[in-house]
Amino acid sequence: MPQTRGSASQIVKSGAKAPVQGKPAFRTEIRFDNNRLLADLLGEFDAHLSMLEDKLGVEAVAHGNVIVVKGTETGCVLAKDVLQDLYERLKAGHTVVLGDIDGAIRHAHAGARDDRKKGEGSDGAGQLRTRKKLVTARTPLQSRYIEALQAEQLIFATGPAGTGKTYLAVAHAAGRLERGETERLILSRPAVEAGERLGFLPGDLREKVDPYLRPLYDALYDVLPAEKVERDLESGVIEIAPLAFMRGRTLSHATIILDEAQNCTSMQMKMFLTRLGEGSKMVVTGDPSQIDLPPGQTSGLGEAIGILKDVKGIAHIPFTSADVVRHELVARIVEAYEKAR
Fold first, then answer.
1. pLDDT in tens, 313-332
2. Secondary structure element (H or E) that encloses residue 339, with its range
3. Which residue of 25, 80, 108, 137 has the fewest C-beta atoms within 10 A of its own C-beta?
4. Is the dihedral angle over the CA atoms 194, 198, 202, 204 positive or is it negative?
5. What's the rounded Cα separation, in Å, for the pair 221 and 92?
């Protein structure tokens, strides 16, 4: 009897059947060897199984420690691969949530399981490990982004909100810091919305600019323990500052992230890129469709990507609405705005 990868499960029966009165033409049964993990795989009230059915157009029913999948041959094969891969992730001690189901399906559709370099998991998706969690790519392009983060010195990531541009960059930087591959993290954003009005806000300078840097704090606290973030912010190992604070500095042995880079002018972008020092890595993220610069000012993000496109050691990952992983409605909203432009 054929064994699945890592003996995670065993195919009990798989084969084609002639369609009868509109019934599915293909049926596959998958047996799992740990009922507790199977419950985690199914999700609360079988929510994970329901998503699998909706996304792949199959029928999936759990009977004891066996899942029966019916539908087209392609749908059944994809469902089997997804279930086995996520079961292996559970066996390795990781969690599985609805977003992981969606991500595994996207990778299965793209043939990522066979074509991409394996991470620490088994679904072919790129992965980033921090002390607090294992972050797994949820689209094939996110896997490419993770590969670029690991291989290149300067990475541009562009695309709409919800594609993981900033979050994955912060997770990668946090992992590098914990492994001793970098001495400090520097995260920056242009405080374009504040402009000259910063002086009218209450508090000291940090209190004035913190609201514009909050997304970077949120990402840090999600991938690192809160006490480590606070300790490293206090000691300067992690620095979060407006773009203006970068002028005149040479940033060596650091991982540097510039978020919302579409709001940089050409001069600001050149200034920032030339801060890169010895032993450092830089990630620049932005959404070209959400530029908040005053009228008449050109965004330096697209200009920099065009000028540097043939320079060795630089990668550009162009996310689209297909890579939105926040909520299905967010993806549809982004698509609607793209069509309206």
1. 999 999 988 888 776 677 67
2. helix 328-340
3. 25
4. positive
5. 24
Do the Cβ atoms of 81 and 55 come closer than 8 Å? no
What pairs with residue 26 in β-bridges?
16, 71
Distance of alpha carbon 95 from alpha carbon 41, whole angstroms: 9
What is the C-alpha to C-alpha distance for residues 315 and 324, in angstroms, rounded to an integer?
Answer: 20
Q: Which fold has domain 127-340?
A: Rossmann fold (3.40.50)
Element (H, E) at 69: strand 66-71
SS3 217: helix
Higher-pLDDT residue of 336 and 286 is 286
pTM above 0.90, yes or no: no
Q: Please state the domain extents for the chain.
A: 5-115, 127-340
CATH class of the domain at 5-115: alpha beta
Element (H, E) at 81: helix 73-91
Q: Which two tokens stand for residue 191?
A: 């405080």
Classify 279 as helix, strand or coil.
Answer: coil
Tracing tokens 């041959």 back to the chain, one arrives at 73
Residue 114 belongs to what H/E stretch? helix 112-115
